[in-house]
From TrEMBL, chain A:
This is Large ribosomal subunit protein uL11m. GO terms for molecular function: large ribosomal subunit rRNA binding; structural constituent of ribosome. Residues 80-148 form the Large ribosomal subunit protein uL11 C-terminal domain. It comes from the Eukaryota. The lineage of its organism: Eukaryota, Viridiplantae, Chlorophyta, core chlorophytes, Chlorophyceae. One of its GO terms (biological process) is translation. Residues 17-75 form the Large ribosomal subunit protein uL11 N-terminal domain. Keywords: Ribonucleoprotein, Ribosomal protein. GO terms for cellular component: large ribosomal subunit. NCBIfam families: L11_bact. Belongs to the universal ribosomal protein uL11 family. It comes from Edaphochlamys debaryana. HAMAP family: Ribosomal_uL11.
TrEMBL record, chain B:
The keyword Kinase does not apply. It comes from Edaphochlamys debaryana. This is ETFB lysine methyltransferase. NCBIfam families: prmA. Residues 17-32 have a biased composition (Low complexity). GO terms for biological process: methylation.
Amino acid sequence: MAAATKSSGPRTLATTIKLLVQAGAAKPAPPVGPALGQAGLNIMAWCKEFNAKTAGYKEGTMLRVKMRVYSDKTYDWDLKTPPSTWLIKKAAGLARGADKPGHEVAGVISLKHLYEIGLVKQRDSPNVPLKSIVTALLHTCRSMGMRVVSKPEDA
Amino acid sequence: MLYTRSPAPSRPPTGLPSTSAPDVAASASSSTSPPPAEIEATCLRATIAAIPGSLAEELSDVLLTVGASSVVVQEHRPPGAPEQEIYDDGEAKLWDMCDVVAHFPLEADVAGTLELAVGALEAELEAPLEYVVESVANEAWVEQIKASYVPLQITEDLWIIPEWSKPVDLSATNVILQPGVAFGTGEHPTTRLCLRELRRMADGGELQGAAVMDYGTGSGVLAIAALKYGAARAVGTDIDSLAVVAARRNAALNAYAQPAFVSLQCGAGIDDAEPLASATESDRSFDVVVANILRGPLVELATRLGSYARPGGKLLLSGILAEQAPEIQAAYAAEGFEDFKLQKDQQWALLTATKRAT
């Protein structure tokens, strides 16, 4: 693999990577392998780094990893909660993909679920009031074509 | 969080057998080396060209939501065009024009999923997405991993040699590994910490004739090193069945098989069965217990791991960050260990201790 080191000047951005990985469970196999391999990184070393850093999370917590990889093969990465739309879909129990291409599959979600998702998203923005976060989630649901009901049993 | 890796000389693997060959773990000769361990099935790669930078960020989040396993964004650079240099100045900028590469599981309906993604974008696209879908063979990204492994010097006289390379210093202790499947290639600071400690123990004759437990053995690198330093027997356990097989294979590459080296599957938690449940009491007692895993399991399994060490036996615990060491130390002090020492490599730590000789 040819080294991509620049001969002079500060490092420049080469690749950005986004993926969802379970806390403490990064492995070199897909999805991590192909993505980090595409960027020419040491997959194994990153997995161990990620697993140690996320060892304190509750088992099964899904995290969104955002990485910026530079021309000298160094990188920065940080952790966020998964996209709101992803959490909403998961809560509504929808399968990924679509039966009718181009059409959003309608679904139903309860306010209680949105509240719980709001608590998760609040970890990324601890200074934002929960009410604002849930209001934003309601807007997201509307744009996704999701119906919001008060109680889980109505879903 | 910075990771710096110096470029390695390119050393292509030689004569890799096809993945359909049967698993012949006993063979130690390099001409009929065991086939690569089974990796998960291939995936699909959709390369979407020429997406404006302003859109690429949202598109990547949407793609993750609709089922992409990962999204890689690179500059869209037409042939001959100069690089648009984005510097690391604190702004998370993207290029004016990007290529968005999304990976999908093999069974995904990529076309349908991409249509769904476009529909979910806030802004309307000026033109339909232009993309190319290709299969990513196991071999393609695994080859990348394999190509990056070269002989690694741990100490003056201890090397880790990938199976397809020749030892650099024939008079050194050379641990032969088939890297790429399980943790423990020798590159990680925690592996290096443990190996250097084993090397130091070997100097003091502490490994001669010893029984070693390597809990979380991964590639088996630590157990194999201990055997090379004169240990009489080593047991490696791992929660990952691929690692259990890999460790056995790697031990065989170094000419260790049962009863010198035993590779066992174990569960992840304290509620899972004791891997040595059917062993005799003396077989469950070790002179050296090494566990290079993670803080969580180290704490949860303290009683079990602690019980493996005989009175006066040595403990090596790693896979932890330096800031996690006090918690680990407290857990094992409660299991009868004393004389704790902390060694560090960057932010990683190795905690060693001795079982009280009651």
